[in-house]
Q: What sequence folds into this?
């Protein structure tokens, strides 16, 4: 299997649930990202891990908790979410964070609905 | 503030040519990217421009004018499979990627 794989593809959860999103990349990259994509809005960067170290946290609420156990895996732990958190959550990877022309490789995303 | 502007939606005819514009205001400039995203799928890289001018890649071309803060993506010989959203993103002087909201392109037979 190649590329960036995200599971699950769809997730419906209540506001009191705890769930986790998983991302795996098979590209040998060193940087991994979580983005939030809402309809008709720009992609919002949530977290960046470079060589397993968190380098960016764009004022994301604590109900979102990332985990990066190694360069190939990235998790987003979710708890006590709000309905406005419903969105498509995209994982991406790149060779290294911050290089000028490096392109991102995205997974297909998890479509999250919070009821 | 920093922002990227691109049209929300465009419609074009199969076989025709369409130009999707992107204007940007960012703190510095270190390159501009175009990505394609089909509905329900991952965004995929299309092009990268860092110098002024036109970059051609098959049916797709991307143009950049840094002095005008302007880029466009040109799609020729449109096919139905080109129906997708096209995302413009600029890397600023802090190497942050600033994204536009995307342009949904609808191709009609």
A:
């Amino acid at each position: 299997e190649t590329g960036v794989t995200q599971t699950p593809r769809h997730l419906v959860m209540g506001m009191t649930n705890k769930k986790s999103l998983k991302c795996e990349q098979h590209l040998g990259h060193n940087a991994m990202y979580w983005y939030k994509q809402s309809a008709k809005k720009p992609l919002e960067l949530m977290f960046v891990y470079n060589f397993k170290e968190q380098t960016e946290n764009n004022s994301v609420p604590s109900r979102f908790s990332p985990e990066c156990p190694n360069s190939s895996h990235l998790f987003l732990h979710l708890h006590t979410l709000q309905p406005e958190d419903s969105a498509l959550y995209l994982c991406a990877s790149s060779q290294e964070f911050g290089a000028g022309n490096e392109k991102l490789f995205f997974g297909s995303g998890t479509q999250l609905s919070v009821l | 503030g920093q922002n990227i502007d691109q049209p929300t939606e465009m419609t074009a005819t199969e076989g025709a040519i369409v130009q999707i514009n992107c204007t940007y205001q960012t703190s510095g400039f270190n390159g501009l990217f175009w990505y394609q995203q089909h509905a329900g799928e991952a965004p995929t890289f299309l092009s990268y421009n860092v110098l002024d001018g036109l970059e051609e890649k098959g049916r797709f071309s991307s143009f950049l004018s840094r002095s005008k803060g302007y880029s466009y993506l040109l799609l020729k010989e449109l096919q139905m499979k080109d129906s997708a959203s096209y995302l413009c993103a600029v890397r600023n002087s802090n190497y942050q990627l600033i994204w536009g909201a995307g342009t949904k392109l609808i191709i009609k037979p």
Observations:
- The two ends of chain B are 40 Å apart (CA to CA).
- The CA atoms of residues 52 and 66 of chain B lie 6 Å apart.
- Chain B has no helices and eleven strands.
- Chain B touches chain A at residues 4, 8, 30-31, 33, 35, 40-45, 48, 50, 87, 89, 91, 95-102 (CB under 8 Å).
